[in-house]
Protein backbone atom coordinates (compact mmCIF):
# COMPACT_ATOMS: atom_id res chain seq x y z
CA UNK A 1 0.00 0.00 0.00
CA UNK A 2 1.34 3.41 -0.99
CA UNK A 3 -0.50 6.45 0.35
CA UNK A 4 0.90 9.13 2.63
CA UNK A 5 -2.28 11.19 2.71
CA UNK A 6 -6.02 10.90 2.84
CA UNK A 7 -7.19 8.93 -0.25
CA UNK A 8 -8.72 11.91 -2.00
CA UNK A 9 -8.54 10.38 -5.47
CA UNK A 10 -10.16 7.12 -4.37
CA UNK A 11 -12.92 9.20 -2.81
CA UNK A 12 -13.43 11.08 -6.08
CA UNK A 13 -13.71 7.83 -8.02
CA UNK A 14 -16.03 5.83 -5.78
CA UNK A 15 -18.22 8.54 -4.21
CA UNK A 16 -20.73 8.93 -7.09
CA UNK A 17 -21.14 5.15 -7.36
CA UNK A 18 -21.57 4.59 -3.63
CA UNK A 19 -23.96 7.53 -3.37
CA UNK A 20 -25.95 6.11 -6.27
CA UNK A 21 -26.51 2.69 -4.69
CA UNK A 22 -29.31 3.88 -2.32
CA UNK A 23 -31.30 5.43 -5.20
CA UNK A 24 -33.56 2.35 -5.69
CA UNK A 25 -34.49 2.56 -1.98
CA UNK A 26 -35.34 6.26 -1.91
CA UNK A 27 -39.01 7.05 -1.24
CA UNK A 28 -41.01 9.47 -3.32
CA UNK A 29 -41.34 10.16 -7.05
CA UNK A 30 -38.94 11.35 -9.74
CA UNK A 31 -38.64 14.77 -8.08
CA UNK A 32 -37.02 13.23 -5.01
CA UNK A 33 -34.68 11.11 -7.14
CA UNK A 34 -33.51 13.99 -9.32
CA UNK A 35 -32.96 16.30 -6.33
CA UNK A 36 -30.89 13.64 -4.56
CA UNK A 37 -28.82 12.93 -7.67
CA UNK A 38 -28.18 16.63 -8.23
CA UNK A 39 -27.00 16.89 -4.64
CA UNK A 40 -24.58 14.01 -5.20
CA UNK A 41 -23.33 15.63 -8.43
CA UNK A 42 -22.75 18.96 -6.72
CA UNK A 43 -21.01 17.28 -3.78
CA UNK A 44 -18.69 15.37 -6.13
CA UNK A 45 -17.89 18.50 -8.12
CA UNK A 46 -17.22 20.37 -4.89
CA UNK A 47 -14.87 17.58 -3.77
CA UNK A 48 -13.05 17.77 -7.10
CA UNK A 49 -12.54 21.52 -6.82
CA UNK A 50 -11.50 21.34 -3.15
CA UNK A 51 -9.04 18.48 -3.69
CA UNK A 52 -7.23 20.13 -6.58
CA UNK A 53 -7.34 23.67 -5.18
CA UNK A 54 -5.98 22.48 -1.83
CA UNK A 55 -3.52 19.73 -2.74
CA UNK A 56 -2.55 20.01 -6.42
CA UNK A 57 0.57 21.98 -7.43
CA UNK A 58 0.54 23.67 -10.84
CA UNK A 59 4.36 23.79 -10.84
CA UNK A 60 4.88 20.00 -10.90
CA UNK A 61 4.70 17.93 -14.10
CA UNK A 62 4.78 14.53 -12.42
CA UNK A 63 2.08 12.52 -10.67
CA UNK A 64 0.61 13.92 -7.48
CA UNK A 65 -1.65 12.51 -4.73
CA UNK A 66 -0.47 9.04 -5.71
CA UNK A 67 -2.32 6.06 -4.22
CA UNK A 68 -1.56 2.39 -4.83
CA UNK A 69 -3.24 -0.59 -3.19
CA UNK A 70 -3.00 -4.25 -4.07
CA UNK A 71 -6.43 -5.15 -5.44
CA UNK A 72 -6.41 -8.37 -7.48
CA UNK A 73 -2.91 -9.78 -6.91
CA UNK A 74 -3.68 -12.94 -8.90
CA UNK A 75 -3.90 -10.74 -12.02
CA UNK A 76 -1.24 -8.28 -10.96
CA UNK A 77 -3.93 -5.63 -10.80
CA UNK A 78 -3.50 -2.71 -8.42
CA UNK A 79 -5.81 0.11 -7.44
CA UNK A 80 -3.32 2.76 -8.55
CA UNK A 81 -4.38 6.38 -8.89
CA UNK A 82 -2.56 9.64 -9.56
CA UNK A 83 -3.16 13.04 -11.08
CA UNK A 84 -1.04 15.40 -13.17
CA UNK A 85 -1.52 18.42 -15.41
CA UNK A 86 -2.99 16.24 -18.15
CA UNK A 87 -5.70 14.55 -16.09
CA UNK A 88 -6.60 17.28 -13.58
CA UNK A 89 -8.38 19.70 -15.97
CA UNK A 90 -10.21 16.78 -17.60
CA UNK A 91 -11.53 15.62 -14.23
CA UNK A 92 -12.79 19.16 -13.57
CA UNK A 93 -14.41 19.19 -17.03
CA UNK A 94 -16.05 15.84 -16.30
CA UNK A 95 -17.39 17.12 -12.98
CA UNK A 96 -18.84 20.28 -14.48
CA UNK A 97 -20.45 18.67 -17.54
CA UNK A 98 -21.87 15.66 -15.69
CA UNK A 99 -23.33 17.78 -12.89
CA UNK A 100 -24.99 20.05 -15.44
CA UNK A 101 -26.22 16.99 -17.36
CA UNK A 102 -28.01 15.90 -14.19
CA UNK A 103 -29.66 19.32 -14.01
CA UNK A 104 -30.55 19.03 -17.70
CA UNK A 105 -32.38 15.75 -16.96
CA UNK A 106 -35.02 17.43 -14.83
CA UNK A 107 -37.95 16.17 -16.94
CA UNK A 108 -36.99 12.48 -16.96
CA UNK A 109 -39.98 10.50 -15.66
CA UNK A 110 -39.41 7.10 -17.26
CA UNK A 111 -37.59 4.82 -14.80
CA UNK A 112 -35.94 7.75 -13.01
CA UNK A 113 -34.15 5.55 -10.46
CA UNK A 114 -32.34 3.59 -13.13
CA UNK A 115 -31.66 6.69 -15.24
CA UNK A 116 -30.03 8.72 -12.47
CA UNK A 117 -28.12 5.74 -11.10
CA UNK A 118 -26.60 5.21 -14.56
CA UNK A 119 -25.57 8.87 -14.69
CA UNK A 120 -23.73 8.50 -11.38
CA UNK A 121 -22.11 5.27 -12.55
CA UNK A 122 -20.86 7.15 -15.62
CA UNK A 123 -19.59 9.90 -13.32
CA UNK A 124 -17.43 7.43 -11.36
CA UNK A 125 -16.11 5.70 -14.48
CA UNK A 126 -15.16 8.98 -16.17
CA UNK A 127 -13.20 10.19 -13.18
CA UNK A 128 -11.62 6.74 -12.86
CA UNK A 129 -10.40 6.74 -16.47
CA UNK A 130 -8.59 10.05 -15.97
CA UNK A 131 -7.07 9.17 -12.58
CA UNK A 132 -6.09 5.49 -12.80
CA UNK A 133 -2.43 4.54 -13.21
CA UNK A 134 -2.82 0.82 -13.85
CA UNK A 135 -3.49 -0.53 -17.34
CA UNK A 136 -5.99 -3.18 -16.23
CA UNK A 137 -7.77 -0.64 -14.04
CA UNK A 138 -7.89 1.73 -17.00
CA UNK A 139 -9.41 -1.00 -19.15
CA UNK A 140 -11.99 -1.76 -16.44
CA UNK A 141 -13.03 1.88 -16.12
CA UNK A 142 -13.14 2.24 -19.90
CA UNK A 143 -15.48 -0.76 -20.18
CA UNK A 144 -17.68 0.29 -17.25
CA UNK A 145 -18.29 3.58 -19.04
CA UNK A 146 -19.79 1.80 -22.05
CA UNK A 147 -22.60 0.03 -20.21
CA UNK A 148 -24.54 3.07 -18.90
CA UNK A 149 -24.17 4.87 -22.25
CA UNK A 150 -25.66 1.87 -24.05
CA UNK A 151 -28.57 1.62 -21.61
CA UNK A 152 -29.25 5.36 -21.56
CA UNK A 153 -29.49 5.49 -25.34
CA UNK A 154 -31.42 2.23 -25.78
CA UNK A 155 -34.06 3.04 -23.11
CA UNK A 156 -34.42 6.84 -23.20
CA UNK A 157 -33.37 7.53 -26.79
CA UNK A 158 -35.36 8.34 -29.93
CA UNK A 159 -37.17 6.14 -32.42
CA UNK A 160 -33.99 4.44 -33.68
CA UNK A 161 -32.47 4.14 -30.23
CA UNK A 162 -31.83 0.38 -30.36
CA UNK A 163 -29.97 0.67 -33.66
CA UNK A 164 -27.88 3.61 -32.41
CA UNK A 165 -27.13 1.95 -29.06
CA UNK A 166 -26.16 -1.35 -30.68
CA UNK A 167 -23.91 0.38 -33.18
CA UNK A 168 -22.27 2.33 -30.36
CA UNK A 169 -21.58 -0.74 -28.23
CA UNK A 170 -20.29 -2.80 -31.17
CA UNK A 171 -17.84 -0.14 -32.35
CA UNK A 172 -16.54 0.73 -28.89
CA UNK A 173 -16.40 -2.87 -27.63
CA UNK A 174 -14.40 -3.98 -30.67
CA UNK A 175 -12.11 -1.00 -30.14
CA UNK A 176 -11.65 -2.04 -26.52
CA UNK A 177 -10.19 -5.37 -27.66
CA UNK A 178 -7.29 -3.47 -29.18
CA UNK A 179 -6.65 -1.73 -25.83
CA UNK A 180 -6.52 -5.09 -24.07
CA UNK A 181 -4.20 -6.63 -26.69
CA UNK A 182 -1.76 -3.72 -26.55
CA UNK A 183 -1.93 -3.55 -22.74
CA UNK A 184 -1.16 -7.25 -22.30
CA UNK A 185 1.65 -7.07 -24.84
CA UNK A 186 3.28 -4.15 -23.05
CA UNK A 187 2.81 -5.67 -19.60
CA UNK A 188 4.44 -8.99 -20.53
CA UNK A 189 7.20 -7.45 -22.66
CA UNK A 190 10.63 -8.13 -21.21
CA UNK A 191 11.47 -9.87 -17.94
CA UNK A 192 9.26 -7.98 -15.48
CA UNK A 193 5.46 -8.14 -15.71
CA UNK A 194 3.73 -4.91 -14.70
CA UNK A 195 0.56 -3.01 -15.57
CA UNK A 196 1.65 0.19 -13.81
CA UNK A 197 1.77 3.20 -16.15
CA UNK A 198 5.16 4.36 -14.86
CA UNK A 199 6.71 0.92 -15.24
CA UNK A 200 5.29 0.55 -18.76
CA UNK A 201 6.64 3.95 -19.79
CA UNK A 202 10.14 3.01 -18.58
CA UNK A 203 10.36 -0.26 -20.49
CA UNK A 204 12.59 -0.32 -23.59
CA UNK A 205 10.43 -1.72 -26.37
CA UNK A 206 11.69 -2.58 -29.83
CA UNK A 207 10.50 -0.27 -32.59
CA UNK A 208 8.36 -2.95 -34.34
CA UNK A 209 6.58 -3.69 -31.06
CA UNK A 210 6.07 0.01 -30.38
CA UNK A 211 4.52 0.46 -33.82
CA UNK A 212 2.24 -2.53 -33.22
CA UNK A 213 1.09 -1.30 -29.80
CA UNK A 214 0.76 2.29 -31.03
CA UNK A 215 -1.52 1.27 -33.90
CA UNK A 216 -3.60 -0.93 -31.61
CA UNK A 217 -4.17 1.95 -29.19
CA UNK A 218 -4.79 4.34 -32.09
CA UNK A 219 -7.55 2.12 -33.48
CA UNK A 220 -9.20 1.85 -30.06
CA UNK A 221 -8.98 5.55 -29.29
CA UNK A 222 -9.73 6.44 -32.90
CA UNK A 223 -13.15 4.84 -32.53
CA UNK A 224 -13.98 6.94 -29.48
CA UNK A 225 -12.35 10.25 -30.55
CA UNK A 226 -13.49 9.60 -33.35
CA UNK A 227 -11.13 9.45 -36.35
CA UNK A 228 -12.36 8.96 -39.93
CA UNK A 229 -13.41 6.29 -40.99
CA UNK A 230 -14.16 4.93 -37.49
CA UNK A 231 -16.64 7.72 -36.73
CA UNK A 232 -19.93 6.48 -38.15
CA UNK A 233 -21.41 5.44 -34.79
CA UNK A 234 -21.23 9.00 -33.42
CA UNK A 235 -23.89 10.80 -35.55
CA UNK A 236 -26.34 7.95 -34.94
CA UNK A 237 -25.68 7.94 -31.20
CA UNK A 238 -26.07 11.70 -30.88
CA UNK A 239 -29.22 11.89 -32.99
CA UNK A 240 -30.98 9.31 -30.78
CA UNK A 241 -29.49 10.01 -27.33
CA UNK A 242 -31.24 12.19 -24.73
CA UNK A 243 -29.80 15.69 -24.50
CA UNK A 244 -28.02 15.02 -21.20
CA UNK A 245 -26.36 11.90 -22.58
CA UNK A 246 -25.23 13.82 -25.67
CA UNK A 247 -23.73 16.44 -23.37
CA UNK A 248 -21.61 13.82 -21.62
CA UNK A 249 -20.85 11.91 -24.80
CA UNK A 250 -19.49 14.98 -26.62
CA UNK A 251 -18.20 16.86 -23.60
CA UNK A 252 -16.36 14.07 -21.78
CA UNK A 253 -16.32 10.68 -23.51
CA UNK A 254 -14.60 11.91 -26.67
CA UNK A 255 -11.96 13.54 -24.48
CA UNK A 256 -11.23 10.17 -22.88
CA UNK A 257 -9.89 9.09 -26.27
CA UNK A 258 -7.71 12.18 -26.64
CA UNK A 259 -6.41 11.57 -23.13
CA UNK A 260 -5.65 7.97 -24.04
CA UNK A 261 -3.65 8.97 -27.11
CA UNK A 262 -1.46 11.26 -25.01
CA UNK A 263 -1.09 8.88 -22.07
CA UNK A 264 -0.50 5.66 -24.02
CA UNK A 265 0.68 6.56 -27.52
CA UNK A 266 2.80 9.64 -26.87
CA UNK A 267 4.07 9.10 -23.30
CA UNK A 268 4.61 5.33 -23.37
CA UNK A 269 5.46 4.78 -27.05
CA UNK A 270 7.40 7.92 -28.08
CA UNK A 271 9.56 6.20 -30.72
CA UNK A 272 6.50 5.00 -32.60
CA UNK A 273 4.91 8.44 -32.27
CA UNK A 274 7.89 9.95 -34.11
CA UNK A 275 7.11 7.82 -37.16
CA UNK A 276 3.31 7.92 -37.08
CA UNK A 277 2.84 11.60 -36.17
CA UNK A 278 2.88 12.82 -39.82
CA UNK A 279 0.02 10.46 -40.59
CA UNK A 280 -1.85 11.76 -37.54
CA UNK A 281 -1.64 15.24 -39.05
CA UNK A 282 -2.99 13.91 -42.34
CA UNK A 283 -5.83 12.12 -40.53
CA UNK A 284 -6.58 15.35 -38.70
CA UNK A 285 -6.97 17.22 -41.99
CA UNK A 286 -9.19 14.45 -43.37
CA UNK A 287 -11.35 14.65 -40.24
CA UNK A 288 -11.70 18.41 -40.58
CA UNK A 289 -12.58 18.59 -44.27
CA UNK A 290 -14.70 15.43 -44.52
CA UNK A 291 -16.74 16.16 -41.39
CA UNK A 292 -17.22 19.84 -42.29
CA UNK A 293 -18.49 19.01 -45.78
CA UNK A 294 -20.72 16.24 -44.42
CA UNK A 295 -22.13 18.57 -41.76
CA UNK A 296 -23.35 20.88 -44.54
CA UNK A 297 -25.52 18.09 -45.92
CA UNK A 298 -27.27 17.26 -42.63
CA UNK A 299 -30.88 18.28 -42.02
CA UNK A 300 -30.96 16.71 -38.57
CA UNK A 301 -29.79 19.29 -36.02
CA UNK A 302 -27.90 16.89 -33.76
CA UNK A 303 -26.29 15.05 -36.66
CA UNK A 304 -24.91 18.37 -37.91
CA UNK A 305 -23.50 19.04 -34.46
CA UNK A 306 -22.05 15.52 -34.31
CA UNK A 307 -20.10 16.02 -37.53
CA UNK A 308 -18.94 19.37 -36.20
CA UNK A 309 -17.45 17.46 -33.24
CA UNK A 310 -15.63 15.11 -35.61
CA UNK A 311 -14.15 18.13 -37.39
CA UNK A 312 -12.98 19.70 -34.13
CA UNK A 313 -11.23 16.49 -33.12
CA UNK A 314 -9.14 16.81 -36.28
CA UNK A 315 -7.45 19.90 -34.85
CA UNK A 316 -6.46 17.89 -31.77
CA UNK A 317 -4.68 15.34 -33.96
CA UNK A 318 -2.74 18.11 -35.71
CA UNK A 319 -1.69 19.54 -32.33
CA UNK A 320 -0.51 16.11 -31.19
CA UNK A 321 1.68 15.76 -34.27
CA UNK A 322 3.30 19.22 -34.26
CA UNK A 323 6.31 18.38 -32.01
CA UNK A 324 6.09 21.83 -30.41
CA UNK A 325 5.07 22.99 -26.97
CA UNK A 326 2.50 25.44 -28.27
CA UNK A 327 1.01 22.79 -30.55
CA UNK A 328 0.57 20.37 -27.65
CA UNK A 329 -0.78 23.17 -25.44
CA UNK A 330 -3.27 24.09 -28.16
CA UNK A 331 -4.43 20.48 -28.48
CA UNK A 332 -5.01 20.23 -24.73
CA UNK A 333 -6.92 23.51 -24.75
CA UNK A 334 -8.98 22.32 -27.73
CA UNK A 335 -10.02 19.26 -25.71
CA UNK A 336 -11.25 21.43 -22.85
CA UNK A 337 -12.80 24.05 -25.11
CA UNK A 338 -14.68 21.57 -27.26
CA UNK A 339 -15.89 19.74 -24.17
CA UNK A 340 -17.64 22.89 -22.97
CA UNK A 341 -18.87 24.07 -26.37
CA UNK A 342 -20.19 20.70 -27.53
CA UNK A 343 -21.98 20.18 -24.22
CA UNK A 344 -23.86 23.47 -24.49
CA UNK A 345 -24.64 22.94 -28.18
CA UNK A 346 -26.23 19.53 -27.57
CA UNK A 347 -28.04 20.83 -24.51
CA UNK A 348 -29.62 23.63 -26.54
CA UNK A 349 -30.54 21.12 -29.25
CA UNK A 350 -32.36 19.21 -26.51
CA UNK A 351 -34.15 22.38 -25.43
CA UNK A 352 -35.30 22.85 -29.03
CA UNK A 353 -36.47 19.25 -29.31
CA UNK A 354 -38.40 19.48 -26.05
CA UNK A 355 -40.49 22.32 -27.50
CA UNK A 356 -40.94 21.05 -31.05
CA UNK A 357 -40.38 17.26 -30.84
CA UNK A 358 -38.35 17.39 -34.04
CA UNK A 359 -34.70 17.80 -35.00
CA UNK A 360 -35.41 18.25 -38.70
CA UNK A 361 -34.30 21.78 -39.56
CA UNK A 362 -36.68 21.81 -42.54
CA UNK A 363 -39.56 21.76 -40.04
CA UNK A 364 -38.12 24.53 -37.87
CA UNK A 365 -37.76 28.24 -38.56
CA UNK A 366 -38.81 31.56 -37.12
CA UNK A 367 -38.10 30.48 -33.55
CA UNK A 368 -36.21 33.67 -32.68
CA UNK A 369 -39.50 35.49 -32.27
CA UNK A 370 -40.85 32.87 -29.85
CA UNK A 371 -37.64 32.01 -28.01
CA UNK A 372 -35.41 35.12 -28.02
CA UNK A 373 -33.37 34.07 -24.98
CA UNK A 374 -32.75 30.61 -26.38
CA UNK A 375 -31.76 32.26 -29.66
CA UNK A 376 -29.18 34.39 -27.82
CA UNK A 377 -27.66 31.35 -26.11
CA UNK A 378 -27.70 29.36 -29.34
CA UNK A 379 -25.96 32.18 -31.18
CA UNK A 380 -23.26 32.48 -28.51
CA UNK A 381 -22.66 28.72 -28.61
CA UNK A 382 -22.44 28.71 -32.42
CA UNK A 383 -19.98 31.62 -32.35
CA UNK A 384 -17.85 29.70 -29.87
CA UNK A 385 -17.96 26.58 -32.06
CA UNK A 386 -16.80 28.48 -35.16
CA UNK A 387 -13.86 29.87 -33.14
CA UNK A 388 -14.88 33.51 -32.97
CA UNK A 389 -12.14 35.72 -31.43
CA UNK A 390 -12.84 36.18 -27.75
CA UNK A 391 -13.95 32.56 -27.41
CA UNK A 392 -11.84 29.63 -26.20
CA UNK A 393 -12.00 27.82 -29.55
CA UNK A 394 -10.20 30.68 -31.28
CA UNK A 395 -7.27 30.51 -28.87
CA UNK A 396 -6.88 26.73 -29.16
CA UNK A 397 -7.06 26.62 -32.95
CA UNK A 398 -4.61 29.52 -33.36
CA UNK A 399 -2.19 27.74 -31.01
CA UNK A 400 -2.46 24.53 -33.04
CA UNK A 401 -1.79 26.40 -36.28
CA UNK A 402 1.20 28.15 -34.71
CA UNK A 403 2.46 24.85 -33.36
CA UNK A 404 2.48 23.27 -36.80
CA UNK A 405 3.88 26.41 -38.48
CA UNK A 406 6.82 26.69 -36.06
CA UNK A 407 7.75 23.01 -36.15
CA UNK A 408 11.26 22.29 -37.42
CA UNK A 409 10.45 18.64 -37.99
CA UNK A 410 8.42 18.85 -41.18
CA UNK A 411 9.26 20.27 -44.56
CA UNK A 412 7.80 23.64 -45.48
CA UNK A 413 5.62 22.05 -48.16
CA UNK A 414 4.12 19.59 -45.67
CA UNK A 415 3.43 22.27 -43.07
CA UNK A 416 1.84 24.63 -45.59
CA UNK A 417 -0.32 21.83 -46.97
CA UNK A 418 -1.58 20.82 -43.52
CA UNK A 419 -2.24 24.42 -42.45
CA UNK A 420 -4.02 25.41 -45.67
CA UNK A 421 -6.24 22.33 -45.73
CA UNK A 422 -7.08 22.71 -42.03
CA UNK A 423 -7.92 26.36 -42.70
CA UNK A 424 -10.53 25.14 -45.19
CA UNK A 425 -12.33 23.61 -42.23
CA UNK A 426 -12.13 26.94 -40.41
CA UNK A 427 -13.86 28.52 -43.42
CA UNK A 428 -16.50 25.78 -43.66
CA UNK A 429 -17.49 25.86 -39.99
CA UNK A 430 -19.18 29.31 -40.16
CA UNK A 431 -21.06 28.14 -43.24
CA UNK A 432 -22.71 25.11 -41.64
CA UNK A 433 -23.16 26.77 -38.24
CA UNK A 434 -24.61 30.06 -39.48
CA UNK A 435 -26.90 28.25 -41.91
CA UNK A 436 -28.06 26.15 -38.95
CA UNK A 437 -28.97 29.29 -37.02
CA UNK A 438 -30.75 30.74 -40.04
CA UNK A 439 -32.84 27.64 -40.61
CA UNK A 440 -33.85 27.31 -36.96
CA UNK A 441 -34.44 30.89 -35.88
CA UNK A 442 -34.93 33.11 -38.93
CA UNK A 443 -37.48 33.30 -41.71
CA UNK A 444 -41.06 32.10 -41.59
CA UNK A 445 -42.13 29.66 -38.93
CA UNK A 446 -41.70 26.04 -39.95
CA UNK A 447 -44.53 23.54 -40.08
CA UNK A 448 -43.86 22.21 -36.61
CA UNK A 449 -43.26 25.63 -35.05
CA UNK A 450 -46.64 26.82 -36.33
CA UNK A 451 -48.30 23.99 -34.45
CA UNK A 452 -46.90 25.28 -31.12
CA UNK A 453 -48.38 28.81 -30.85
CA UNK A 454 -47.47 29.28 -27.17
CA UNK A 455 -43.89 28.00 -27.31
CA UNK A 456 -42.07 28.66 -24.04
CA UNK A 457 -38.74 30.45 -24.07
CA UNK A 458 -35.82 28.99 -22.21
CA UNK A 459 -36.52 28.40 -18.49
CA UNK A 460 -34.30 29.75 -15.67
CA UNK A 461 -32.97 26.23 -14.98
CA UNK A 462 -32.07 25.79 -18.65
CA UNK A 463 -30.51 29.24 -18.82
CA UNK A 464 -28.36 28.34 -15.81
CA UNK A 465 -27.05 25.18 -17.51
CA UNK A 466 -26.20 27.07 -20.71
CA UNK A 467 -24.60 29.97 -18.83
CA UNK A 468 -22.42 27.68 -16.68
CA UNK A 469 -20.95 26.21 -19.87
CA UNK A 470 -20.64 29.43 -21.87
CA UNK A 471 -19.09 31.62 -19.15
CA UNK A 472 -15.84 29.59 -18.98
CA UNK A 473 -15.74 29.49 -22.79
CA UNK A 474 -15.76 33.28 -22.89
CA UNK A 475 -13.50 33.58 -19.84
CA UNK A 476 -10.84 31.33 -21.39
CA UNK A 477 -11.18 33.16 -24.70
CA UNK A 478 -10.46 36.50 -23.05
CA UNK A 479 -7.86 35.20 -20.58
CA UNK A 480 -6.52 31.80 -21.72
CA UNK A 481 -4.30 31.39 -18.68
CA UNK A 482 -7.41 30.49 -16.68
CA UNK A 483 -7.15 27.07 -18.34
CA UNK A 484 -3.60 26.82 -19.64
CA UNK A 485 -1.96 27.29 -16.25
CA UNK A 486 -3.40 23.93 -15.21
CA UNK A 487 -1.42 22.01 -17.82
CA UNK A 488 1.41 24.36 -18.97
CA UNK A 489 4.09 22.41 -17.11
CA UNK A 490 2.74 19.11 -18.43
CA UNK A 491 2.63 20.44 -22.00
CA UNK A 492 6.30 21.42 -21.73
CA UNK A 493 7.20 17.99 -20.35
CA UNK A 494 5.33 16.19 -23.14
CA UNK A 495 6.93 18.38 -25.80
CA UNK A 496 10.40 17.87 -24.33
CA UNK A 497 9.87 14.12 -24.25
CA UNK A 498 8.98 13.84 -27.94
CA UNK A 499 11.76 16.26 -28.90
CA UNK A 500 14.34 14.23 -26.95
CA UNK A 501 13.08 11.05 -28.58
CA UNK A 502 13.25 12.70 -31.97
CA UNK A 503 16.89 13.62 -31.42
CA UNK A 504 17.78 10.10 -30.26
CA UNK A 505 16.12 8.56 -33.31
CA UNK A 506 17.72 11.06 -35.67
CA UNK A 507 21.21 10.43 -34.31
CA UNK A 508 20.90 6.64 -34.18
CA UNK A 509 22.14 5.12 -37.45
CA UNK A 510 20.51 1.78 -36.62
CA UNK A 511 17.02 3.29 -36.64
CA UNK A 512 15.04 3.53 -39.90
CA UNK A 513 15.14 6.95 -41.51
CA UNK A 514 12.26 9.30 -40.93
CA UNK A 515 9.60 9.63 -43.62
CA UNK A 516 10.05 11.87 -46.64
CA UNK A 517 7.42 14.15 -45.16
CA UNK A 518 9.96 15.62 -42.76
CA UNK A 519 12.55 18.27 -43.31
CA UNK A 520 16.08 17.17 -44.21
CA UNK A 521 17.45 18.92 -41.11
CA UNK A 522 16.12 16.26 -38.76
CA UNK A 523 18.81 16.88 -36.16
CA UNK A 524 17.81 20.51 -35.73
CA UNK A 525 16.28 21.20 -32.33
CA UNK A 526 12.62 22.09 -32.18
CA UNK A 527 12.19 25.63 -30.84
CA UNK A 528 10.49 26.06 -27.48
CA UNK A 529 7.48 28.02 -28.67
CA UNK A 530 5.93 30.27 -26.08
CA UNK A 531 3.03 28.87 -24.10
CA UNK A 532 -0.43 30.33 -24.47
CA UNK A 533 -0.86 33.19 -22.06
Notes on the protein architecture:
Helix 3 (87-104) packs antiparallel against helix 10 and helix 8 packs antiparallel against helix 10 (243-268). The longest helix has 32 residues, at 325-356. This protein has 20 helices and two strands. The protein has one domain (8-506). With 533 residues, it is mostly helical. The protein has a two-stranded antiparallel ribbon. It is 69% helix and 3% strand.
Descriptors:
533 residues; mainly alpha; two-stranded antiparallel sheet
Topology (elements, then pairings):
Blueprint: H1 8-20, H2 30-55, E1 64-72, E2 77-83, H3 87-104, H4 112-131, H5 135-156, H6 161-187, H7 197-202, H8 207-224, H9 233-240, H10 243-268, H11 270-296, H12 301-320, H13 325-356, H14 372-385, H15 392-405, H16 412-441, H17 447-450, H18 460-478, H19 481-484, H20 488-506
Antiparallel strand pairs: 1-2
Helix pairs in contact: 1-2, 1-4, 2-3, 2-4, 3-4, 3-10, 3-13, 3-18, 4-5, 4-10, 5-6, 6-8, 6-9, 8-10, 8-11, 9-12, 10-12, 10-13, 11-12, 11-16, 11-20, 12-13, 12-15, 12-16, 13-14, 13-15, 13-18, 13-20, 14-16, 14-18, 15-18
